[in-house]
Amino acid sequence: MAHTNRDIRLVVLDMAGTTVADGGLVEEAFAAAARHLGADPDGMIDHVRATMGESKISVFRHLFGEETKAQEANKAFEAAYAELVDDGRVEALPGAREAIEELNSHGRTVVLTTGFARPTQDAILAALGWQDLVPLTLCPADAGGRGRPYPDMVLTAFLRTAAADDVRQVAVVGDTSYDMLSGVRAGAGVVAGVLTGAHGAEALRAAGAGQVLDGVGQLPGALG
């Protein structure tokens, strides 16, 4: 049976760069973490940009190799990012909340996912007043520890919400290549990129985006 966009029951939405304005905060927090370990962030920033969307601890494992160093860098990153959140530097992208509410009103279940650890995710949700906006939010640890580009968070959303009967009734939406890959690997019926974050249309399409939207505000209309 052919599935159409109208069949979408579950929408798995990324946070930073997709529904939440990043404003370079990830890079700022990363630079603070690198300096904390006595490393030069300039030599590492290209890797950080290329792997946006991946779980942060795996980025640090790649950069620092040694597990204790990676864990220390991750803690420093979380602390720096939390400070930026406390300073009021985090805001919702235009139309994001309205899009989520519209999807909800159409009977679709929305799940918010992130590559950040749970304390950072919770701090962002609290800063935006989004704690009760969706029924489920997921970070890599909630899905067994593997973040994007693995499909685990998408499949965890599918299993935990029981909102869809078939993975083809799932839409995965994000601003990075890794978001797209996680959607493709999960077998999602819709894999859509948005141009409000890390990667451009070409990179998103190359990683499997079936459609590219200017922003998440266009999503309810795109799903129909």
UniProtKB/TrEMBL annotation:
One Pfam family from the record: Hydrolase
InterPro entries attached to this UniProt entry: HAD-like_hydrolase_sf (IPR050155), HAD-like_sf (IPR036412), HAD_sf (IPR023214), PGP-like_dom2 (IPR023198), PhnX-like (IPR022468)
Protein origin, superkingdom: Bacteria
Family matches, as Gene3D superfamilies: HAD superfamily/HAD-like, Putative phosphatase, domain 2
NCBIfam families (UniProt xref): PhnX-like (TIGR03351)
Protein name according to UniProt: Phosphonatase-like hydrolase
